[in-house]
Amino acid sequence: MNDALTATPTAPVNEESNTIEVEVEVRMSDTSVYLGSIFVEKGGRILDYFNGLSPFFALTERNGKVRIIGKAHVIQAIPYDRAAAGTAVSQQAGGSLL
């Protein structure tokens, strides 16, 4: 991994924010898989988050580092509770998240 692409967050999360933290497994076009958290709007869908206007998103890894990822290279994003259960997204009701 290239450490130039990661950084340690320095600001605390605003508890009065309109976002919630969601743990996801992100599968990339180069076969890399990342596990971490994203912040989505309360009441929003993960699909809407990934289809938003920004070409990049921040994934906070479990070790506290933040990875900036280009959305164009994401093949699949699975909420971690589903990924841990081993359920393929394509087999779930509602289909793929991306």
Enumerate the spans where pLDDT stays under 50 for 5 or more consecutive residues. 1-11, 88-96
What's the alpha carbon Rg, rounded to whole Å?
13 Å
Give the CATH class: Mainly Beta
What's the domain count?
A: 1
Q: Classify the helix fraction into a percent range.
A: 10-25%
Q: Count every beta strand, where a strand is a DSSP E run of 2 or more residues.
A: 6
Q: CATH architecture, please?
A: Roll
- Overall, the morphology is globular
Note the main sheet. Answer: 6 strands, antiparallel
Number of alpha- plus pi-helical segments: 2
Which fold name is given in CATH as the topology? SH3 type barrels
Order of helices and strands: EEEHEEEH
Average of per-residue pLDDT values: 76
Widest sheet: strand ordering = 1-5-4-3-2-6
Question: Whole-Å distance between the termini?
Answer: 25 Å
Primary descriptors:
39% strand; six-stranded antiparallel β-sheet; 10% helix; disordered C terminus; mainly beta; SH3 type barrels
Write the layout of secondary structure elements.
Elements: E1 6-7, E2 19-28, E3 33-41, H1 46-50, E4 56-61, E5 66-70, E6 74-79, H2 80-84
General description of the model:
With 98 residues, the chain is mainly beta. The chain has a single domain (19-88), classed as Roll (SH3 type barrels). It is built from two helices and six strands; from the N terminus they run E-E-E-H-E-E-E-H. Strands 1-5-4-3-2-6 form a six-stranded antiparallel β-sheet. Strand 2 (19-28) and strand 3 form a beta hairpin.
